[in-house]
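Comment thread on ticket #2218

A.B. wrote:
> Attaching the input chain for the structure job we discussed in standup.
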Amino acid sequence: MTQASIETVRPAPGEPVIAMINWQGLRALYIKEVRRFFKVQLQTIWGPAVSAMLLLIVFAVAFGGGGRQIMGVPFAAFAAPGLIVMSMMQQAFANSSFAFLVGKLQGTIVDYLMPPLSAGELLAGLVGAAVTRSILIGLALFVMLHLWPGLDVSIREPWAVIWFGLMGACFLSFLGIIASLWAEKFDHNATITNFIIQPLSLLSGTFYSIEKLHGAFRTISHLNPFFYVISGFRYGFLGVADSNVVLGAVALFGINSALCLTAYLLIRAGWKIRN
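C.D. wrote:
> Ran it. Output below, let me know if you need it in another format.
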């Protein structure tokens, strides 16, 4: 190659090499994050799936005896969809809240800040990997539930399963990114999990219908975003819901948009990740 041809290949001074989106860098970050949790898949995918199955067995034995039904379906069929999406959400948070926190504690945060990735590309790569882990756990649980004798887990409204599953996973992924930026040690992360994520998950109507609640308890349940995710996701399997599915879909989109913008602005400002 002649010197003249080399000069024509090189960009002019000041001309950006990456015009709009660094697709190669985004792909590399996404693959890195997926490989990170996939190397320990017994802990990150199969472990949570088995734990969720054991939880369903315990509740089905304790509360599903005597042919008990909720909203016209057997207890196990009612609880299974909520348990799937609850596990998806919790593991999405666990994955997205890990990267920045470990980077700050181990001094490897530069691995995220030095590559030519914008704040949006960095956010997309981390959230994409968390949602991928969430989907894999959901699929694993969906397959395992088919082994339950007499349990019908057929999908009646595919759009609801896809929409509320993705909205729930993105919701906790964005929340996990914000938590990892704020946290300075693992105790901070565990505090959010134990005192916010777990209570909101268990009090979201996974194992009961909020129609059984009265007064202030029902009002509080309607203010819980987790409730709309679980109720909408369950609607995709059962065809019935104890919430306004359309209102829930719109509300979750709004919440995710606000969390996405917040996470993006915090990353772009380098909040608590740049000295």
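A.B. wrote:
> Thanks. Noting for the ticket: The chain has a mean pLDDT of 88.
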